[in-house]
Structure formats: C-alpha cells, structure tokens
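Standup notes, structure subgroup. Blocker cleared on the tryptophan input:
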Amino acid sequence: MSKIILTADRPTGKLHIGHYVGSLRNRVKMQNELKKDDVMYVMVADSQAMTDNTGNIQKVKNNLIEVALDYLAVGLDPKKCTIFIQSEVPQLTEFTFYYMNLVTVARLQRNPTVKSEIQQKEFGRSIPAGFLTYPVSQTADITAFNANLVPVGEDQLPVLEQSREIVRTFNSMYAPILVEPEAILPDNKACLRLPGLDGKAKMSKSLGNCIYLGDTEEEIKAKINKMYTDPNHIKVSDPGKVEGNVVFTYLDAFATDESFKEFLPEYKNLDELKQHYTRGGLGDIKVKKFLFEVINKELTPIRARRQQYAQHKDEVYKMLFEGSDKAQKVAQANLDKLKHAMNIDYRAEFYKNKK
Ligand code: TRP
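Run returned:
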C-alpha cells in the first residue's frame, strides 16, 4: 500500500524544539524517503487554532506565516510534499459536518486529550462547541486525503483513536471507503514529550520555557544556562541525578555518538557521560556547554534557512496558496466519493438517470 502521510500544527505560536524532535524531524525524514506513489501533506491548522482563539484570530493569522517559515526552515520541501492552509480547503468543513453525526457529545467529552485541554484552558462550563468537536474536524483533515499515516505528538493519540472510531462508524453505516489512520511517534522516548527548560512537563509558549527553532545562538546559550538540572548537585564533586534532569533529557533527544566525537571526545557516548555525572566529579557547566554545542549545530542551518525565507514572505504565501489549490482538488474528489457512499450525490444520480 502506498503511503499517504498527513500532519498538521495549530498556528498559535512559533514552533520549538519540542515540535522538532517530536514530529518535524521525523517528517523531513519521511519526506525524503517517499517512494513513487507515496504522498505527503503538511497542513497549517488555522481553523482548528481558531476553536480556542476565537477572540484573537489575529494571533492565528500572524502565526500562520511563522509556522510556514518553520516548516521550510527544517527542510520540508514543497516540491516533495504539499504544504497548505486548512481554511483554504473548504471541503474539510463539509466532511466535518457529516462526521458530526457519527459521534456523540458524551464521547467527545470523554476524550482524554480534549478533557485535559479543556481543563488547561479553563473553559469551565463555557466550552466552545467547535473546540469540543475538533477531533471530528481532525478526522476530516485526515480522511479528506485518505491519509493512512499520521505523525503526531504523543498527546494526540486519543484524538487519533477517535478518528479511527469515526472511520469505522462511517464504513459500517455507509460503505467501507475510509482508511483507519495510524499514528507515527518518534522511536526515541526522550522525543515523545520534551519537557520545558524549567523541568515542567511540557514545552509550551504560554509557560515561556521553550527554545524556538529561530532562536539566536545567544538566546539558546542563555536559555540553556538557566536550565533546570539536579537541585542537589551543588558542588562538582557531588553525585548527580540524570533522571528528571532536563539537560540530560535534551541530550537523550539530540546527542549522538558523533556529537561526542566532535564536541566532547573524552567520552565515547551519552552513557559514559551519565555515569560520570552520577558518580560525581562532573559539573553542570560542562554538560550544558556540550548541550549548547549539540543543539546549536542542529539549529544553525535551520535558523539560517528561516532567516532567508523570512525575507521572501510573498513567495512563502504563494507556496501555501498553490499547495492549498492542490489540496482542494484531492479533497473535492474524495468528498464526491464520500457523498456517493452516503447516497447523497443527487446531481450525479439525477443526470445518470436522464441518459
Ligand atoms: N491537533 C493537532 C495538534 O494540535 C493539529 C492537527 C490538526 C492535526 N489537524 C490534524 C494533526 C490532522 C494530525 C492530523 O498538534
């Protein structure tokens, strides 16, 4: 079976290294390994972002271009994948509307991702209906392109499970035309959920604990210097803990044996470094300096490409519109099939009977 890959991000802020190790790095790799009949779509989910930013659509609008710049910066290439804007593909709304009836309000309220987001956003009893139903619209995003593979962050697994349920319901109620999508997570466990610089569970713009893909060298250095380590590791000679030590979690996500050869040749690999730290005798400053070198090396080409594209925003918008036109055609063809399966393709049926 050929691969049809689809992923998306809500444009509510610039993308950070949590997005990078959790999904973007994987996407670029997948993009570069596409075979002849494989296709890949990357969507800026502006409509989904509006479900909890109704009073601040300007923020979504501003970040649309930032996310597109991040995509191009990490190496997503519009010649290899279709990059598009959700709201520019109106067919998605129509898919959503039909799927709404295949899921109950109670089931949406039980969705663990939606539930925790509702708490986090402090909606109380005033949950926007559009927010509660975003897993339905996400199912539309996926099935409108017949996507079978969906690289996402770990937190999105319950949403994807809900999509699979909707697909099964549709298939059994009408005709088995939809594909159950499969989530793709990074293999490296440290990449599943990169903690914030402060050791908080998640890197998040609102907590101000992120390293952004566009950060300058100085910014990265300053952020790493302030990073949370082991609070009981005071003197260099003290034994230190690597579990819950953000510096080591980031090294898990970024450092390879090559990084040691290049920047810290007195250690062969991360295990050796961890052992030394645990034993005592290794200071935070040295480990942080290494982490800086490793991250900075990976982000330097990304930052440079980001700056370049940022000088050509008109071209970036045009790229997004071209991608959206392509996406519309595919979504329309699949919408026609959906309506045929639901037996509501009135016109086609009417004119066929006239022949
Ligand atoms: N909900 C996803 C997120 O917050 C974004 C998203 C929208 C998405 N539509 C999608 C992800 C379709 C995968 C497939 O990250």
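Discussed briefly. The chain has two domains: 4-193+314-354, 217-308.
Next: hand off to the docking folks.
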